[in-house]
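Bug #77: duplicate submission created two jobs. Keeping one. Sequence:
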Amino acid sequence: MTTAIIITFCTLLLISYFFDLTSSRTKIPSVILLLALGWFVRQSTNFFGIELPDFSPILPIIGSIGLILIVLEGSLELDLNRSKISLIKKSFLGAIIPLLGLAFLFTYLFHHFGYFPIKDSLLNAIPLCIISSAIAIPSVRNLKAEHKEFVIYESSISDIFGVIFFNFIFFNRYINIQSFGNFGLELLVEIVISLIATVVLAFLLSKI
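Kept job's structure:
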C-alpha cells in the first residue's frame, strides 16, 4: 500500500510538471488540467469499482497549503513601494466590488428562483464570486509586469476577503452589531499577529 501511494504521488508530480511545461503553448492553466485529471481519475475509479481511502479529512489542509504556496510564489515577484499604492487601490476595488456585487446578485437569484434561505444562498454564492489565485496567478506568467502584479494583488485580495466574508456569514447565526463587533476584534487581533510575524521574519532574514 505504501509503495502504491509513493508511486501515485510521484506520477502526479511528473504529470503536474508536464502540464506546467505545456501550459505556455496550450494557454490552459496547469491547475485547470489537474482539476480535469482529478475528475477523470475519480470517475474512472467509480466506473471500475476501485476503492480509494477517504481523503476528506486532509483535503482542506492540503488545499490550503497549496493555495498559500501559490500566493507566496506570485508575491515573490512583487516589489512593494509607494509607487504601487495606486495599483493596489485599483486591484483592491477590482476584487471587492465584483465579489460583493455578484455575491448579492447570485444570492437574490438563488433565493428568488430556488427558494433557498437567504443565508444558504449567500454561502453558496460567495465561492462562485471569488477570483481563484490558484488559477489566476499561474495564468499571467507571460503578461507584462504591471498586468501581472495587478492580477496577483487582485486574486490574492479576492481570496482573502472571500474567505473572511464566507466565515463571517457561516459562523454567525444572527447578523447584528455584536457579530460585527466580535468579527472586528478577531480581525484586529489577526492583523496585529500578522504584522508581528512579518517584523520578526524580516528581522531574522536580515541577520542571515
